[in-house]
Each structure stands twice: as structure tokens, then as C-alpha cells.
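hi! just following up on the protien thing from before. the input was this:
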Amino acid sequence: MLGAYLIRIDNSNDMDARPRLPRPLAGLAFLFSLLPAMALAITGQELFEAEVPVSSQQPAERASAMQQALSEVLVRVTGQRDLLQQPAGRAVLDSAGNYVQQYRYFTVPGSEPPRLMMRVRFDDEAVRQALRQQGVAFWGDAERPDTLVWLAVEERGQRYIVAEKDGTPAGQQLEQASRQRGIPLLFPLMDLEDQSKVRFSDLWGGFFDHAVEASRRYNPQAILIGRLNRSPTGSWVARWNLQVAGSPSSWTNSDNQLAGVLNNGIDNVADTLASRLAVRDAGGSAGMVSVRVDDIRTLAAYARVNSYLDSLTAVRQLQVEEVRPTSVRYALQLDGSLQGLTQTIAIGTVLEPDPTGAPATYRLRQGHCITSPISSRRFVYCWCHRSSC
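and the predicted 3d structure came back as:
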């Protein structure tokens, strides 16, 4: 059975025109407020924006700032920290001004003395075309998994697990580093439910099963587990374990500064994910594959699948080959390989592999929401698939 509900959010400027929900929906809204926080989505536009400090608004300073901003964007959208040392990266960087869509100056609120910054937005299609011409892989927003962080910190005799919006220096630095690399992070609430399942000693001792089990309520596509402490010499030491699509990886890093050790941890996460999920455009040799998606039972589900497949960097063109009562077959023109597409879908939240193991066959995952703009209002349409309500 399929249950559905519709919530309208009115964006009117009339402060007195507050939206009123029917009582059943008001109850649902209250329940939603108790659910775990969602990761902040990384949009395509945000991937191509950067803020850099400047000392003046002079043309020479502006040109230098544009190059610095593009440097950040190139690392973010390719996942390659060493790109700027390669001829391909330098070739794109030398033409930074050609890709600027808009820029503006602003002063950091509350800064004393005032700190002048420049925010630059680059044309995503122009940058991507430049990368394609240089043969550089591109890492789009649809291929960036929500990553749940379980971090145990020991400092000056205190022990704690970083929680959602707890204001700790470690949590704030992780959020800043994740924005820099374009990784959507979320943290556990560490409410009674989390505390009953995950103890500090579990994370500290490398016993990750409890954290993985507790992560189910957050529905992440990747899980990052770490422990952080000061060494006898005073430097920070972090040990990390990243689990994505059933494939774990571990590493250790250290730094004299908290920012350094946590930035390095997020850098390794981004490097690992990009190496698996970034797509190298195939130019004129893109291949055609046929895939089938099952359990499409409504027009909303059909629209959701179409939108999702079309958003994938690996999909250059999408065509509907066949429509059946509960399934649709698509012809996809790909940049990259079918294996790369399969890896991308595996970390997503929209489709899952067919349980029978049939090749190039997927089905709609259970429980989705669609947000779509209609005129000046936004509608959020959610449904429960099968018996998951």
C-alpha cells in the first residue's frame, strides 16, 4: 500500500499569513521535529563558490583572489588536492577570470579591524568543460554521500563524543573542513537512544559494531569513526575508520594544531570518496547501457527516479525505453563505466540493487521525499513505500 501526505510551505512575505496545518499533519510536523538531524546538502551551486580574504578592491588584487577562489573550487569539484601542481590544473587556473559568473565584496560581521572578503561564483558548465578538455575527472553533488561522524575526543582528562550542534571546537572544525571539501556531514544527537547503544569506550577501543548499528536511524551513506587525543609531546593524534558501501579504510594522522589534524582527516575522506565516485568525461565515446528500475508505482516515484538519474554526473543523456505497470527501462548514455554508475547508485538513497542480483536492475528504495518549487510556493511530497509507514 502507498500512503502519502502533502505539506505546503508558503513563502509569502506577509508575516501574519502563517501556514496552518490540519491536526493530523500538525502531529506529523511535531514528530518530525524529534527525528535525527539531516546532513546539510551540498548543492551544485555551492560547489562552485568560494570566499577568500582580500586587502583591497584593486584589479590586481581581484585577479589574484579569483585564482585563489578557483583553486579551492577545483580541489572541491575534482577531489584531487594535487591537481594544482599538475599541468592540467594550472592550465585551468591560468584562465580563472574566464569562468567567473559573479563576485562581490563584503566585510566579516563583527571583525575588528574589519576583514574584507570576496565571494566568487564560477560558471559550473564552463569549469566542467575546461576540466573535460584537460581530461580531469569531475565529482558532482549527486555523488557526495551523507557522512555520519562518530568522534571520541580525550583532552585534559575529559572524554566525550562529538554531538550535533554541541559547540565543541572539534565539531566546529569538522564542519568547516567539510564545507571546504564539499562533504555533507552529520553528527549523532547523543540522546538517550544513542547513549544506550554507543559508549565512549567502544569508539576508543576500535569496537565499531555498536556505532554502525546505531547509525541506522540516521540513514547515512558513509560512516566515519574516529578517536582524537593529545600525545605526550602535545601534538594531536587522530585514528580514523571510514565505511562506505561495505568497504572500510583506516588511517592515522597527527598535527600540532587541532585544525590541522581534523582538516587532514576530512581531506582523506574526500580523497577516498572522490577516487571511487569522480567521473572522467568520456568525450565522444560515451557508452550506452540499458537499466531497469522496479517498484515504480506512482507518477511521483517515476518523476523522482527520472530526476535522480538525470542528476548523476555519469549520465550524459537519459531516454525511456519501456514502461510497464511497476517498472521502467532506461537507456543511459554514460560518461565512464557501468561499474562507476553502480558504485554511485550504491551509496545513494534513491535506488538499490535488485535483491535477485539481476544485472543492471535496481528498485526504488523505501521512504522518500520530494521537494519541488511550484510558482512562489514549495511543496514537500513524501510517501511510504510498501509497508514501511
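The chain has twelve helices and 17 strands.
Residues 144-277 form a domain with the Double Stranded RNA Binding Domain fold (CATH 3.30.160.100).
cheers
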